[in-house]
Structure formats: structure tokens, C-alpha cells
């Protein structure tokens, strides 16, 4: 039997990757692995703590290692952190054995969803909305490399999960 491809969710912080990943896994009876949670389990500390104590570069190395490990599996759902797609090696690993689906949202939506979040080290700026806009603009070309994309503005997680399933219809065995 040919192993089924993974479903990989990428997208900016606050696009709902983790919650939608869980819904997809439940619906499809697949295992779900979240890259950030995988790192936190291995490191026995929070991503925010890694950023604070060791800096972003160390986190990105851990992220690359985690992506490499997790992408070796097949038939699972993988949810990534918002910056995972910046690294070409991560991109190759995720695409090789998976359908990559980008979850999209407007900066206003993202701001509403994640303002006040304490667990996001990249959003410690004074003007969080401006920071979201800048980062989103810089990352847009990376998310655009995905196989498919789904807009999440004004949609509930279960509506988005349904759209992802429709998008992947016939592509999953
Ligand atoms: C990051 C997003 C975070 C986490 C880390 C860096 C990013 O994950 O990986 O704080 O670079 O956008 P979420 O997208 O789940 O918030």
C-alpha cells in the first residue's frame, strides 16, 4: 500500500493552524503533530522561554530538526509555527511527503485573534498591529508557495476544517 501523504498546515500566527489541525485529525482519524509542541516536549520548556534565553536562531535550529523528524512520518496531520516556512530545508521536507495548505487571514483578523497573547515572542513590539502587518507582508511569498490556500477570515475553525477537507478531496487515500 502506498502510504498516504501528510497534511501540513502553514500560515501566520493566529490563522488557526493548531485548532484546525486537531479537527482535521479527528475527522480523518489521523495522528496530529504540532511542531512547536514537539519542541516543547523535547526541550521541557516553552517556545517563549527558548526565544528569551537562547534567542531566535537557536529556536530555528530546533524547529528545523523537529520538522525533519516529523516529516518522515506519513499519513499524519502536521501543524507548524508561523515561521517554519522561512527555511528552504523545512519547506523541502514538508512538501516531499505532504500536501501543504496555507491558512490565510487579514492583518486585522490576526490582530483581533492574538492581541494579548503572551506566548508569542515575536509580537512584543510596541505597535503590535504594525508588526503583524510587516511580518505578514514579508512572509506572504513563502505562504504562497503552498499547494493550496484557504481564507479563514470570518470563518469558524470547523468551517475552515471543512474547506480544507473539500480542497483535499480525492487527494488523500
Ligand atoms: C513563530 C510562530 C509561533 C512559534 C514562534 C515563532 C513565527 O507559532 O513557532 O513563536 O515565527 O511566526 P504559531 O504560529 O503557532 O503562533
Number of distinct beta strands: 5
So what's the CATH class? Alpha Beta
CATH structural fold name: Rossmann fold
Task: Report the sheet-strand fraction.
Answer: 5-15%
Shape: globular
Based on helices, strands and strand pairing, what is the structural class?
A: alpha/beta
- Rg, alpha carbons: 15 Å
Structure description:
This protein has 173 residues and is an alpha/beta fold. The chain has a single domain (6-168), classed as Rossmann fold (3-Layer(aba) Sandwich), CATH 3.40.50.300. The chain is 51% helix and 13% strand. The protein contains eight helices and five strands. It has helices at residues 17-28, 35-43, 47-54, 56-70, 88-96, 107-114, 128-143, 157-167; strands at 6-11, 32-34, 77-79, 98-104, 148-151. Strands 2-3-1-4-5 form a five-stranded parallel β-sheet. The longest helix is centred in the C-terminal third of the chain and has 16 residues, at 128-143. The protein binds shikimate-3-phosphate. The site of shikimate-3-phosphate (S3P) has 10 residues, from loops.
